[in-house]
Write a structure and sequence with these properties.
mainly alpha; 183 residues; 0% strand
Length: 183
């Protein structure tokens, strides 16, 4: 009797572990891989400085707190491809699946490129390259650490008014200071 109970619970635990893994694998095959050509197009369309960010921006991205780049990329692609149900647990499940699968299928450089090219930056066009020219007046390839910090602060809260939000200024200063403390 005891063996049967243990076997039952062992099978139950195995099924509880296997079901989400099988669902994730199916989602990968039927949804994410179906968008792989679209992802490749997004990567190809990214600007040169979004594909190879300047050192100033790369350093700011390294110290950006709680940025969780892959989670941002997953959400940006869900919006771009309109593949998740609106709101609720379906949205969260799809975002989690995309986050996990982006970690598996995309390199860090690809995830960074997608983040920089898809990030909403408060204007009509997304992306750091356009925002750099619009907000800083310089191409992304030429931004200073302070300008890169400002752009990352904008990406973290793009709907704020850039001329009147003290939080952007505080966040940008904090990020720039953290970069200066890097070895």
């Amino acid at each position: 009797m005891r063996r049967r109970v243990l076997a039952f619970f062992g099978a139950l635990i195995g099924a509880l572990v296997a079901a989400p893994l099988l669902a994730l694998a199916a989602y990968d095959v039927f949804v994410l891989q179906g968008h792989r050509p679209d992802i490749d197009k997004l990567l190809a369309r990214a600007g040169p400085a979004e594909q190879r960010p300047p050192e100033s921006l790369a350093r700011v991205l390294r110290v950006s707190p709680g940025d969780h780049l892959t989670a941002h990329v997953a959400r940006q692609m869900l919006w771009a491809f309109d593949t998740a149900p609106r709101g609720g647990s379906g949205w969260h499940a799809a975002a989690l699946a995309w986050w996990l699968l982006c970690e598996v299928h995309l390199t860090e450089a690809q995830r960074t490129t997608l983040f920089l090219s898809l990030a909403p930056m408060g204007g009509e066009e997304p992306g750091f390259e356009r925002a750099s020219v619009r907000l800083m007046g310089v191409p992304l390839a030429e931004v200073s650490v302070e300008q890169a910090a400002w752009l990352v602060a904008v990406a973290q809260a793009p709907s704020r008014d850039p001329g009147h939000d003290a939080r952007w200024t505080r966040n940008a200063r904090r990020l720039a200071e953290q970069v200066r403390q890097l070895p």
